[in-house]
Amino acid sequence: MLEQFADGFSFQRRSPVLHSPAEQGLDYEDVTFPARDGVPLEGWFIPARGSDKLVIANHPMGFSRSGIPAHLEPWHSLWAPSGNGFEVDLTPDYRILHDAGYSVLAYDLRNSGLSGEANGGISSSGIYEARDVVGSLDYVRGRRDTRRMAIGLFSRCLGCSSTFAAMTRFPEAFDGVRCLVGPQPVTAETILQRRLDMMGLSDRLDDLERLIVLRTSIGFAPRSPREWARNVTVPTFLYQVRDDILTHPSDVQEMYDNIPGREKRLQWIEGTTARWDGYLEFQRRPEPMLDWFATHLR
To answer: Is the whole-model pTM more than 0.85?
Structure first.
């Protein structure tokens, strides 16, 4: 069982791109661009006519730019035990952002959706995915129609951890980036311990780490969004399901505490234990996040 769990974490099952912006009545362009290390990334550019503001969307682990079909097998069996056996469609997020006056770039991180395989197909909790975040910034700065736009980041879960890692390794890439909205960044060690608890294997974390190192060459210590958060350089709004069964509130709280400066906010989502509800919060109550973008993307 532990071997299978290590396989599933180390080599994440790709979620398909099941939805498109067209379902939300949006015009869009299929785009491809390289990560900083050349990995081909696939995405959508959704223009907001007449806008000079752009939001780049980075998706959660195990998702694609369109979400995750956790109502379908084999994803349902994986996530239903934690109360997350329902679909998350992220395309309504792009409609909300578009209608608020933002052009949007949404893309698949490496080893996800339709983007290229890299680094042996492993998930690195942000270490290598950071190169994708920087590649998305390089791309919009190179397009004639977006190069002068004000840029905000909407980076969820792995996308947020990858953004923290990118700010640590490539700080110059974030010159001029105005703000970050970051739903539910998580530390690998924390989420894996919680999942072991649910499996009745609470005392096997060290064994699991050894198996993950054998598959990915990366232990838990280098996968450290809490430490990367010390290098965040833009106004940042984090939000998180407080009673998320897959993590612990202290994890996000420590990331928040480690972010330098005063232009930051942490919002808790109450009344649920389902992590997926955190990803749907923007569709249900977008006003705080839109206010953050509006304040900093003037």
So the answer is: yes
